[in-house]
Design a protein that fits this description.
With about 325 residues, the chain is an all-alpha fold. It has helices spanning about 10-20, 40-50, 65-85, 95-105, 115-120, 125-135, 140-145, 155-165, 175-185, 200-215, 220-230, 235-250, 255-285, 290-315. It has two domains: about 10-85, no CATH class; about 95-315, Heme oxygenase-like (Heme Oxygenase, Chain A), CATH 1.20.910.10. The radius of gyration is 20 Å and the shape is globular. About 40% of the residues are buried.
Length: about 325
Amino acid sequence: MLLPKPRGTMSAAVFEHLRSPEPAPGERWPTSPVADSTDDELITLWALQELSYRGFEDTDGDHKGDPFVLAERHQLESALEARLRSRWTDVELEDDFAEQFFDFVAAHDGPSLASFILRKADRDQALELMQARSIYQLKEADPTTWVIPHLAGRAKAALVELQYDEYGAGDPDAMHSQVFAAGMEASGLNAEPGHYINDVPAEVLEQNTAMSLFGMQRRLAGAALGHLAGFEASSSLPSQQMAAGLRRLELPDEMAKYYDEHVEADAVHEQLAVRSVCAAFLGDEPHATQDVFFGAFTCLDLEARTAQHFLDRWEATA
């Protein structure tokens, strides 16, 4: 995977730094650049976080631990977290966490891309959505895996159980990321991770950087688990709609099968994520209950913002 195209002054400066040899001890580090836009900030942060995944072929050295990169990433993640928290209001907690959590997710009423794909989308729109989804789907479950070392006891064991299924239960061809890649290839799309990064809007970047932020920060473990549970508790029906919509458009069955897998899997995973992972985690760390709900809200809110972006654009060009 190559570094993305810059989207402003900040990303241009940071990407130039990543393509240069790492400065020797005592050498001067670059001056922190100023971003031109949120888009500029998010593409920069996405690239800096990606250094902790599989990295880029066109960088000179590791860089993920150099002081400039660490400082920039900290600054950008702090700004992202502040923006996400500004949209959130604490919930009034009740006695039964699981039931309140399921009610909280069910009460969220955002626009639905799956419903649009089912009823109205054309083939090009469906393929565009697959391209946007690929930024996460081709490394599906990886951001959540960062959380495992942050947990203990029942919560850790339950999360490993869930992740084992996400990673194909030992079968590399059954990994959810690989099933999605097979669907992309069958649909004539490029399944190389990050291939479509230059085409996705800020909303997709914010979704992806938020997941990495939550997963990598120990103090945000509750938000990471809430995000996971919010996704699992809200994806079974949309997956069913997506599969039906892709078949309506006569896209290859390999693409629809990815969503078929999630209709059943996520119906099981939602119970595991909420009752076994989150509830066990909160048994150990009850002070993190608001963070769990914050993570779930962020998952649902960012999905709604992404959906609205695509629906506004597609309906404007209809």
